[in-house]
Each structure stands twice: as C-alpha cells, then as structure tokens.
Amino acid sequence: MSLPALDKLGFLSLIPPGAVPASDEINIELYFNRHPSELLIGQEFVSEMNANALLILQRDPVRVADTLSAIGYAYQVGDRAGSLLPVLNRRARILANLRSMKASSFYFEEALFLLLGLCAMELVTLAQPGHHATIPTVLGNVSSLISHHTSIGGEISFVSRYLLRALARQDLVVSLVHLRRPRVPTCIWLETNDCAKADRLLGYTATLMPLLEELCILAEDMREQILQPSHSSATDQAVHENTAASISPSSQDTSYATATSPRSSDSVCSDVKRPSAITPFFNPSPESTSIQLRAASLYQRLTAWSPPITDNTPFLTTRKFRVQAASYRSAALLYLHRLQHPPSSSIRNDDASQPAASETGTEAEADAAALHGAHDVLLYASGAPAAETKLLLWPVFLAACEMRGEEDRRAVGEVLASIAAHRRTVTVERTRRFVEERVWRARDAGEDWNWMVLAQKWPGECLPI
User: Fold this and answer.
1) At residue 204, what are phi and psi to the nearest 5 degrees?
2) Where is the composition biased (Low complexity) (predicted)?
3) Are residues 95 and 194 in the same domain?
4) pTM (2 decimals)?
5) Are residues 34 and 130 both part of a single domain?
6) Both 279 and 313 in a single domain?
7) Is residue 15 part of a domain?
8) Which of 40, 95, 171, 206 has the fewest CB atoms nearer than 10 Å to its CB?
C-alpha cells in the first residue's frame, strides 16, 4: 500500500503481515487519500487525523481495517447505479464487528471509531437523497456507549475525546434539527486544553459548543409549542430507536442493558473520570423557570461570544476559522430567533424587502429580522475562498430557509454548490432538496414553511451535516 502522505508521520507500522487482506488495500489507500483531505477544515489537520487512525488500526488491525476499507469503498462506488447494496453489505460487516468485540482497555476507543466509520459511510454515499439516513440511530448507540463507559468509571482518553469531537459535531446538528438535547454532551469531550488550538472540524468554535448544547435543550423544552400535535412523534420513535445491544462487549461482565433510555447528560457528566490536572470547561447552568429569561440570557452570551484566536496570528492563516466562527454564531442567533418567532405562512413576494399580503406587522418584522440574520450568514459564507467554507452546511441551511427573492435563492444555491464541490458529501444535495422541495415550495404555496415543523413532518430528509 503506497501512502506517500503518511511518510511524514514517522509512524512505525506494527501491523502484522497479512492482517489486512490484499483486496482491502486499495480501498484503505483511497480512504487515506480522500477522506481526511475532503472532510476537514484544512490540510494542516490531515496528518494528525491519519496518525490517530493508524494508532487505532495497530491496536485492532482486522476490525479497523475493515472500517477504513468500507469508507474507501464507499468513495470508490459513489452514487453509481447498483452501488447501494454492496455498500450496505460493508456496513453490515462493521455492525458484525461491533457485536463481536471483546472487552479490552481500548474497547471504548475502537467502538467509537467503528461508529464514526458508520457515520462517514452515510456522509459519503448512504445518505443520498431518497435513502433512509441512520446517523441519528448511530448517535443513539454512541449515547448508550458513553453511558455504559462512564457508569463503570471508564476514563475519557485523548484519543476518545478526539473521536467524540467529530461525533459531537454531527450530534449537535441532528439535535438542533430534531429539537432535542444532544446525545453526546459537551462535558464528555470538551476540555480547557482543547480550546486553545484549532480542531480539525470545529476550528475555534469548541467554546461555542456548550452554548449550542444549551440551545438544543431550550429547543427541546419549547418543542411542544413549536410543533403541531399532528407532527408529534412518529419521528421521535424512529430517531430514538437504537441497536445498542448489538454493539455491547461480548463479555457478560461488561455488557450493558439497552431496554432503558440513555441516562441524562447531567448523570453522565457526573460520572466522567478526568485527569486531575484537567478541569471541565463547561458546567451546565441551572434550569430557569422562564423560557423567556433563558432565551434572553442565551442571546446575550451568543452575542458576546468570540473565538479564542490570537491577534498575532496571520489573517490568511486564521481566515477560515474566523469565517466558521462568525457563521456559526450568526446561525445560532438565527435559530434562537426562530424558536421565539416562528415564520409566517405567506405567499412569496419577489421583492424580498416587501412583506407578503397575508403577514401581520409582527410576523413581517420577525421575518425581516430573520432574513437579516440569514444575510449575515451568507456574508461570511460567500466572502472567503470556496475551499474554506466547506464546513458551513448547517449555517447555510438555516440561511437558505429564509430566502424569499429569486436573487437570494440563487446566491444561496451557489454557496451550496460550492460546499458540495469541495466537501463532496451526499448530505449537501439532500439538504438542498429539503430546502427547495419542502421549505421554499411550502412558502410559495402559502403553507406553513417553518423548517422545524417540516423536518419532523418529513423525518430523515433534513441532515445538514
């Protein structure tokens, strides 16, 4: 297997000869050559990600190589006709590997890696528009895995936190879409030391994540008033299904029950074992009795938040991080605004500066404020080189839902096309179709175009990861 990019790692391979089937080598090579470089915020993180993958590969060559090969194979077949079944077979092998894993000191890390591999396959090919997306189910398994690991006093290692950050990013987006609290709480993976440097996916937004987690909790508490009774939870049942029993260690002594729901994040966080030199960055604030007070407090803290980027770092070096930070903060403020002020149901007016005839003054003002916030997101997302905005799908999705005029819709379509060209995940097209076929079409027809409602009405279609 020829991996020139890995030579710089100085990694001495301890993988036994023959542990990786020759037929898998081309797919593993494809994984290393494409997945990190296309998925990450910048090329400077590729070697770091590869090093962590190789570390886990050396601990369990057979299972981890199978996962890497499955992701590489998903890249190889793409969305070609007839490609879905063989990719599903590869996914089934990963699930079988999860079921057969024995308890070990590295079980938690390896299980997280395999679950992250399942998510990667979804992003690369399985979550094509029109196909069922299982990332929410995988994240339910992650939650059960965390719950078990912390309940028995397991430590959260550096490698575990590295993997959890990637899962937490996906989980936050899914949680915001489904108006529920995260399955991967920030207390599990966020440490003070992690915030001083950029992350491969989060950039410098790690310190924003606790605020987004709080936003998810607020959305869950407001869920009933946002959704119509008719939209209640056929979706929740599907999303909360999990097959955690299939990923528990084979040893009877370490298997964990899955008949009950995962413990609350507060309970999980209280069990986390940390090195004495490291303290958690975030402690959940007490519940407020007033939704309005909580929203006002969150608004103030989101407005005041800024990324921990030092001013002596060159601008061109930090531009992509600043763009990501500004976009995410603007999107969070837009999301908070829409929690409190749902969209009006009105027929589109091509002149976006004019309210539609059926809007009341209050609705028109709320929609105008939301459009202003959406323009803020697009200002950041379209101002930097396209290659530096490929991780902005969630903010751009929120902005796209607010677009009414044809010019604005074309502009946001160009940004989505740019993200698709540089990140090449099938969830971009899935998101574009949801915006155009569900949100914009409903708005143009004078129907309820609140994306929060439509995402529950059409479960699984909205996946802006």
Assistant:
1) -105, 25
2) 356-365
3) yes
4) 0.86
5) yes
6) no
7) no
8) 95
